[in-house]
């Protein structure tokens, strides 16, 4: 058992060091997550894997590790071993040996003699006490984990305010604590944050929940319990925590499209000293500086995936050094254990947070948070409110505790009419919303009731706008869809159903906005848009201002469909301007989109042009970017003597893995006039400085790169030449050694 623990600790150490050296700076967060979790699995499985004998000194580390011993033997077992040893000694002295299994019972005299041995020979071994101390540590840390789980379950059970948000449960705590999540439960103290910060926190923790990051931390915690004495397993656990935060931050910035600077400011704002439980994924980490640096760092290119290719030789080499080779009997009787890395089983991230936009009447229009099913009646329930300048910001949900749905919206304070001490009414064309409770308090709550306007319901039915949605009228109420709005839609479209009205309401498209979108489509697409096209434009944030921006970029006369495509890929005036300043002028919008897709950095274009590549095109720049060719790489090649390479040659050098160091090593051996083509061909055939040095030292100082490549093809190296010389084949030409190799050293006439 001790040997297994030592081996597992060593494997964890190798995994941690490899990650720190090669992978921690890469932005492949999903791949790093698989690697880190896979390393936990490998640490506990590789010690059991045995391979056939492949190298000398295989299993060397196993020979220097403390071996397994009697960690739990009792006194009688120790007596038996001692008696067996003494019995063997008697046999050697001419006395009949006594079977060890029967000594305690059949040889009382010998047992009495043995019982008179010093106590130190019959007590528990050091290994026993060491193993006992290990079990004590496991018990202590296991108890800590169970206590943490108990605290979490207690908080969930005792919390009076829980909100069901899809498959996520938001637990609003009554005491101040750092936000955190555990599987699909999100814990937050809502009174400590403003509305925007609260939304960022919830979005962040939802991503943790949907990616099952709690499972990663739970597995890491269990591994840390089993190897509590190893510092490497704790360090791996820390890296798992940090990578989870990096992955979540990337989703927030790239998928949720939050403002990066504001999000980072919120991270700093929430950096309070209240530490959450270690098995929860938490918004407030102590690695804020590293997280912010990672968010601002340049994303890794696919070319950097080569680093993962070293995983197999690293762990295979560790396995060879750790475990002794299996005997032929073991190999025939047992199959070698196979290990594989677990695949990430994260759900696809979906946007689920309300987005605010300015309403025509001056209030902030918020969209539905957790969309209720079409059969759930939400005409009555509970409301929670706080004041925001001239607005009442309300959240509606179905129950005080866990709610199957919830939605929020801000209304202007003048929208509500006070009808009693604790009664407020808002009336629109679609119906009447009545709030019972002290709405005018800074923070308040109560019950609400929505009453549909029967005339409006009959009006919808008469105009064939029926829907399967039970709460259609309430949603139209929130979105200010009234008769005037419906009449306008009737004037534009012959028929439409309630489902389209529902989509308009959900996406908060006001009548003024809708009219503006129609004007945009007619101007740029020369046709009347469908309702689905307008909804798509709204979803992607295309408006009159963005269309004007596109025209200012130098792309007039585009269809609105193409403009939406540009918006989807994040094309803005500053990016186009930077491309032009870098010399990539006269680009079509399609080419700009292509540049954006391939992450073309205008500064990189400028750097390459500064090196003399004035004919650089976008197509060539994309190819260079895909393979990771940068100005710094070109300068490295130039420092190694390759000063006049074309872009195609530079790209070819990168593809074949040429670097300045290897080129300088070859030149240092006397190949000062070697050309790019020779170095490239040498690289392709595996001819490096070590190979060249071996042949030169074997007695062929005038070797050329071309002849070295030919020698490599025929598997001739310095060792082969030296061995041939010992047999009498002493040549000054590599061609003769090639002939010797081809004829298998069987031509005596070649000897000189």
From TrEMBL:
Residue stretches making up the Peptidase M56 domain: 194-295
InterPro entries: Beta-lactam_resp_regulator, Peptidase_M56
Region (Disordered): 349-370
TM regions (residue ranges): 6-22, 34-55, 126-154, 304-322
Keyword terms: Membrane, Transmembrane, Transmembrane helix
Bias type Basic and acidic residues, positions: 349-367
Name by which UniProt lists this protein: Peptidase M56 domain-containing protein
Taxonomic path: Bacteria, Pseudomonadati, Bacteroidota, Cytophagia, Cytophagales
